[in-house]
Every structure is written in C-alpha cells, then in structure tokens.
Request: fold
Amino acid sequence: MRFSPRIRLTMQRQLVSGLLALLTVAVAATVILLPAVAQPPDYHRFADDRAWLGVPNFLNVVSNAPFFLVAVLGVRALWYPEGGAPGAAFYRAPYALLFLALAAISLGSAYYHLAPDNARLVWDRLPMSVAFAAFVAAIAAERWNPMAGRWLLAPLVATGVGTVLWWRLSAGWSAENVLPYFAFQGWAFLVVLLMMAMPLGLRRGSCVKAVLVLYGAALGAELFDRTIFAFGQVVSGHTLKHLLAALAVYQVVRMLRAGDGR
Reply:
C-alpha cells in the first residue's frame, strides 16, 4: 500500500516522537535504578598542568576564550543574519540562551581550570547544562513544532541545572551521584540525533550534523587527554576538547547567518 507524502510524513513524525518518549523513559529509569556514581577522585588531574605568564594550567584556561568569541558571533548572527531579517521568534529565544550560556561557559570553565576542584567545577557545569537544554529546545522548535522551543525551554533548563545541583548536594548526603548530569548530556545528544530524522522546519541539517560530529570528537579528545598530550607534549586532549566544542557551536553561527535560507 502506498501512502501519500503527507501521511508518510505524519507517520514518520509519530515514530520519532515515540522513540523520543521511549528514550526519555529509558534514561530516567537508568538514573533512578542504577546505584549512585561518585565523581572520580582523579577527575581534576589533567595532563597539561603547565603554567605560563603566571597563569596555572595555562592552555586549559585560555582555550576557553573561543567560547566567548563564538557567543558574540552567535548573538550577532541571530539578530543580523546575512539575509537581513532576524531569525524567527520561535527559535530565537533558545538560541539566544545557548549563546549566553556559551559566554558563561567561557568564564566558568576558565575559573575552574585556574584551580580545579569540585566547588569550581559547578560554575563550569551549570552553564554547560543550560547550553545543552537550550540547543535541544531550539532543534525541537525547528524540527518538531514551532512552539516546542518555548514550551520545552524552561523545563529543560530546570532539569539540566537540577542535575548539576543534585550532583553537588549529593556529595553532602549519603552518596555523591554525578550520573544524572552525564545522563542528561547523553539524552540531549541522542534527542538531537533523533530529531534530525524529522524533515520539517528550516532543514539546516548539515550544520546540525556537523555540531554532533565535532562535539563527539571533543568528547573523544577529552577521553584521551593524556594520550594526546604524550605526543610531543604540545597540546592536551582537554585543551583540544575546548577548541573542538567551540568549533561545534560555531556551526550554529554559520547556520543562523543564513537566516531562513537553506
């Protein structure tokens, strides 16, 4: 039986919506059922701890500057795209919050890397959770429903921030648990990936795919922090993570500069 394009599109949207619901339930169940996961004791021991110009952990600190630059470029692109017309209101708010969070990441991460510990890490992770939430809301507005970004933005931000606060406060309770924070990041990554199957919206899929690929590479660089630094001790994996993550968000800037053009 052959279905009309409209029916096929409806079926596709329903399938993706169902998968998104299953993913959300699965991640929530995982967080609830699995035992608490404590922050690894050696988390703050990065490969490159070299100081320069009196700044400790110099490269890990200054490599946060591109986040601030991309944030400035992003705000400008959002309100003054090359096409001459500002972006649609239904996705402007989550993208604006994304770039504000990115500027805060630049400051918070630099502050953390000056003297890495759990207390300072909070100021790195809080804006990161807001950035993830804002990006999911923006993609939902473009791919799922124009109003979805407005509906989801506040709950997603509250959830992301809540995972960071839960981790920090749980350290003073019976068991420290960082699992919700990382689960929220993984959920956000998979949600955006699933939403790419929805062909509606502004259809700027290539830029979003580049965001996912580059951020995946950033996570890989972080995972192999010491291995990368061992090659000539020029740059560490964590420093590369910062640069790749900033480059990932810059793909959003490129997308917004084109306005509603494809």
Observations:
- The mean pLDDT is 87.
